[in-house]
Write a structure and sequence with these properties.
The complex is a heterodimer of chains A (161) and B (428). Chain A has 161 residues and is of the alpha/beta class. Chain A has five helices and six strands. The N and C termini of chain A lie close together (9 Å). In chain B, helix 1 runs parallel beside helix 12 and helix 13 packs across helix 14. The chains are: A alpha/beta (161), B alpha/beta (428).
Chain lengths: 161, 428
């Protein structure tokens, strides 16, 4: 499979997580993988040739991190048809803010779904107020089921690539 | 300059800005040797000594930098004061690129009559002790029952949180327990938070205000008038909503009362030798009044350490600019030193990434003209009385701090730099 990891971050912690996911997937030797900052990724590049892993933090009271805002606004303005896009979502937040826990990623997830993209696997989450588990460890534990979910989608998508 | 040989890059200051700059440069030029200097023996500056002890999730960004310093080409040189141990001119002679990220660590004084009275403190007096930067804890037992907190930003809210929290609210923190115990032996009964700005122009983040709501036994009041015509997504509307929900929370028999007073300026600290009260002026009513206070804590910003030898003869290095981080090709500033003490860690990450782009462009476009061979840190060792603290030495001290942590604490910090040096340079 071709996997594209895309991350939105405020403090760089989600970037670190994305790099760890990339390393884990690359080391397995089973898939092609790249990672990119959402602020440097074109919405028009989203297509069926890859599976996408989004990792996104939460800013303030449930807002998108600043590095994800332009990507999100482009989705809103251009309303691209994403019906052949499959993705997995990993959100970071602080459970302390009950009402808005990991909502940054949910803002993005909702928009991707509205545009026809399909989320697969479990919605991954990391709670920053739990200091026992690092975001990277939580994401690495979540990763295998996301990869399994991609492979279950079937050969029809992979065949297109 | 030929860009095929590895360059020697010096970053002065290992706080968030210096580390984010080193990180951005290392990503694009992994073969260059980057040395991050710090006048302290421990790395991470503001993250270790400025971020509140109960905000460990913010401090956890050090994981990124632990990873950075684990790279062979990224070195930490602690306990080296640029300007004193090494002159800045000598540093520039041995490095192709020098970038200053020395921050603004000194509390700004509120310049009103009575500012030197006993009982008038700055936020830094508390924060640096709670973070074990200093061992001094006597201030904590003398704050008294009635405290006026001056300032409307996030640092003021850090102080407010400290004043109204109880023991169990520090679980998982690395607070200095001597300071905490000294304070909780005689904690505050009333806090008046004076903010010169209106609630709509206050500098605090609404998430920080909401966080106050999780603390038990506190009654909040506020003097702000309702305002209906605000975009509910604006920062002002979110801030109003956060304060309103604090005020609306029913608290029977509160331990502490917190009164937010917006659009209210302190004009004078009152008292002979010791603070007795504060004269205030309310913008809306134009009324002057006096409020009683056992002590006052000001949180009105931070400024450069202008006595630091690094700025001697180079005072213009402290000038604030929103423009380029380039002083001249090969010499740069980033973070609070460049921008002034405003903006959160993410804002300074963005700043460092911008300055890194300027540096990379200057390298790629051959604007750095001094092409002599550079020796980096090795070329300066003969000038040093003591070997710098390396990152692996710091790791040794760090592990000891983690191992020494008491129940319900994430670490127990060594107080003072001499102790850190001793722990970093001995195996046991």
């Amino acid at each position: 499979m071709n996997i594209q990891i895309l991350y939105g971050t405020e403090s760089g912690n989600t970037e670190l997580l994305a790099m760890d996911l990339e390393e884990e997937i690359a080391d397995s030797g089973d898939h092609e993988v790249e990672f990119a900052d959402l602020q440097e990724y074109e919405v028009s590049s989203l297509d069926s040739s890859k599976y996408y892993i989004f990792a996104c933090s939460t800013h303030g009271e449930g807002e998108l991190p600043y590095t994800a805002q332009e990507f999100y606004e482009t989705l809103v303005e251009e309303s691209p048809d994403l019906s052949d896009v499959y993705y997995a979502m990993f959100g970071l937040g602080d459970r302390f803010y009950e009402d808005t826990y990991s909502q940054g990623s949910e803002v993005l997830d909702k928009k991707l779904s509205e545009l026809g993209a399909t989320r697969v696997g479990e919605y991954g989450r990391h709670d920053a107020s739990s200091l026992e588990v690092t975001p990277s460890d939580a994401a690495l534990e979540w990763l295998p089921q996301a990869l399994a979910a991609f492979s279950e989608i079937g050969e029809d998508v992979s065949a297109a690539s | 300059m030929t860009t095929d040989k590895p360059l020697q890059i010096a970053v002065v200051g290992s706080g968030p800005s210096g580390c984010f700059l080193a990180q951005a440069l290392n990503r694009k030029r992994p073969d260059d040797i980057i040395t991050v200097f710090d006048q302290l023996a421990a790395p991470y500056g503001l993250i270790r000594y400025g971020v509140a002890t109960d905000h460990q999730q913010t401090k956890s960004i050090t994981r990124q930098f632990d990873r950075l310093f684990a790279k062979e080409n990224v070195k930490f040189a602690g306990n080296i004061e640029i300007g004193a141990d090494i002159k800045i001119e000598d540093l520039r002679e041995q490095f192709d690129v020098v970038a200053l990220a020395t921050g603004r660590p000194n509390a700004r004084q509120l310049d009103i009559p009575g500012k030197d009275l006993d009982g008038v403190y700055t936020a830094a007096d508390l924060i640096y002790s709670l973070n074990s930067f200093r061992g001094k804890t006597d201030v904590f037992s003398t704050l008294g029952e009635h405290i006026v907190l001056v300032g409307g930003g996030n640092v003021a809210l850090d102080i407010l949180r400290f004043l109204i929290k109880e023991h169990t609210d520090y679980d998982g923190s690395d607070v200095n327990d001597d300071a905490l115990e000294a304070y909780l032996g005689a904690p505050v009964k009333t806090v008046t938070v004076l903010n010169r700005s209106s609630i709509d122009e206050a500098k605090s983040d609404s998430a920080m205000l909401r966080e106050l709501g999780s603390i038990e036994g506190v009654r909040f009041t506020s003097n702000h008038a309702p305002e209906e015509d605000l975009d509910e997504k604006s920062a002002a509307a979110r801030r109003r909503s956060a304060v309103d929900s604090l005020v609306d929370t029913q608290t029977s028999a509160p331990r502490v009362e917190v009164a937010f007073r917006f659009s209210t300026a302190p004009e004078q600290f009152l008292g002979q030798d010791t603070l007795e009260g504060i004269q205030i002026h309310e913008a809306e009513t134009q009324l002057r009044s006096e409020i009683y206070a056992d002590s006052a804590i000001t949180a009105v910003g931070f400024e450069a350490d202008d006595k630091s030898p690094i700025y001697k003869g180079h005072e213009d290095l402290m000038r604030i600019t929103e423009d380029s981080g380039r002083i001249e090709p090969g010499f740069y500033r980033t973070g609070w030193l460049k921008r002034g003490a405003v903006g959160t860690i993410p804002a300074n990450r963005a700043c460092a990434q911008g300055v890194a782009k300027e540096i990379l462009a200057d390298i790629d476009e051959n604007r750095i003209h001094d092409t002599a061979e550079k020796s980096g840190l090795d070329g300066l060792r003969h000038r040093l009385a003591e070997e710098p603290i390396s990152f692996s030495q710091w790791v040794l001290a760090n592990e000891k701090e983690l191992n020494l942590a008491d129940v319900n604490r994430i670490r127990k910090k060594f107080v003072g730099q001499r102790d850190i040096i001793a722990q970093a340079t001995t195996q046991n």
